[in-house]
Specification:
Layout (H helix, E strand, L loop, with lengths): L3 E10 L2 E11 L4 E5 L6 H9 L6 E6 L2 E2 L5 H4 L1 E4 L11 H11 L4 H15 L14 H13 L5 E5 L7 H18 L3 E5 L2 H7 L2 E6 L2 E6 L1 H6 L4 H6 L6 E8 L4 E4 L5 E3 L2 H8 L6 E5 L4 E4 L7 E10 L4 E7 L2 E7 L10 E6 L5 E4 L8
Parallel strand pairs: 3-8, 3-9, 6-7, 7-8
Antiparallel strand pairs: 1-2, 1-4, 4-5, 9-10, 11-12, 11-14, 12-13, 14-20, 15-19, 16-17, 16-19, 17-18
Helix pairs in contact: 3-5, 4-5
Length: 362
């Protein structure tokens, strides 16, 4: 069980800055997921940790000792690739035995280790098959098993579920999480799939254009995003964004087009009175927007733009003034395109961002 520390890591490829002064830590026995869009620098980070890329600057330590000067073999980490990278002419047993033979492990000990790992992964009956005879999910388990037999200091995983179909991805998310807890191993996992990150991670580190945006628990990332990028990237549907200003006389946030206002608590007022921003962006999750049919104080008039039934829930797109917002409602909620209705914002569950910097204010 190992602690990984990445300090001020930078890496560029020509004019492309893949990593820009990245610092983060992975705790011993933790499942940490590095999440971000394509081109964010996620795989480059893993490859620098594994020794497959040399950073331009910065330091990488594991267990308190620097490893950035060591060869990949000396770092004692296992890398599970997106493509699985199995040897097609070798059986499952031979694929799993390959790293142990490289270490010249005795045959009896090697057989025992492989049988033990195969049992954990439920692939014992597949040991004499070749990769072409396996499904995508089975190949993924074999690739993971080949990494596990080495008993590495840390598992590095680069989008290992991407090539699986949707149903199998759901099953393997649960299986990976169970396996990590059972082993007590340290997983450093890369994905651009927020559902994978939210469902599996102990903590999520969000990366954009090589810069760390936020690192925290999935719940905090979702409910208290650090900036507009995180708020818009995490969540399905994405967070509603509404431009507004702070009106001290009304003691409220007021829409730029004056179509709504949100009263603020004394604590919130005190924070905004000390803020120098001239404009804000109000962020509301779809579940924190309540469509209502009656007119009442605090209800904002709107019109149904479109209804999106999703089976277990329904999304209602509502036009209020010049803005469009989404509300998440039960599947029994009945509404038709063009109907007039009102919306009520949850005054306790929202985020407020500085319009200029994008950073969270409330």
């Amino acid at each position: 069980m190992t602690t990984l520390e990445i300090n001020h890591l930078s890496k560029s490829f020509g004019r492309v800055q893949a990593l820009n002064d990245l610092s983060l830590g992975v705790h011993s026995g933790e499942f940490l997921i590095l999440l971000g869009p394509t081109g964010a620098g996620k795989t480059t980070t893993l490859r620098c940790v594994a020794g497959l890329e040399k950073p331009d600057s910065g330091m990488i330590s594991m267990g308190g000792a620097r490893i950035d000067g060591l060869s990949p073999a000396e770092r004692d980490v296992s890398f599970v690739f997106q493509s699985y990278a199995l040897y097609p002419r070798k059986t499952v047993y031979e694929n799993m035995a390959f790293p142990l033979r490289a270490r010249e492990m005795p045959a009896d000990a090697m057989r025992s280790r492989i049988q033990d790992v195969a049992a954990k992964l439920r692939i014992t009956e597949l040991l004499q098959r070749r990769p072409a005879q396996l499904s995508g999910g089975q190949q993924q388990r074999v690739a993971l098993g080949r990494a596990m037999v080495r008993e590495p200091r840390m598992f590095l995983m680069d989008e290992p579920l991407t090539n699986l179909d949707f149903k199998l991805r759901v099953e393997m998310r649960a299986e990976l999480k169970r396996l990590q807890k059972e082993l007590g191993a340290t997983f450093f996992y890369v994905t651009n799939d927020q559902v994978e990150a939210m469902s599996m991670a102990d903590r999520i580190a969000i990366l954009s254009q090589g810069v760390l945006q936020q690192i925290d628990s999935p719940e905090t990332i979702y409910t208290r995003p650090a900036n507009l990028f995180v708020a818009g990237f995490v969540g399905s549907p994405r967070m509603n964004f509404l431009d507004c200003v702070f009106d001290p006389a009304a003691r409220a946030l007021v829409a730029d087009d004056q179509t709504w206002q949100m009263p603020l608590s004394p604590v919130q007022l005190n924070t905004l009175e000390r803020s120098a921003s001239g404009g804000y962006v109000l962020g509301l999750r779809a579940e924190n927007v309540e469509p209502v049919w009656e007119s009442a104080p605090g209800v904002i008039p709107g019109q149904v733009y479109v209804v999106e039934p999703l089976g277990d829930r329904t999304l209602v797109d509502i036009k209020i003034g010049a803005s469009m917002i989404k509300a998440k409602v039960p599947p029994t909620f009945a509404a038709q395109t063009g109907e007039s209705l009102g919306v009520r914002f949850d005054h306790d569950r929202f985020s407020l961002f500085n319009k200029s910097t994008g950073e969270v204010v409330l």
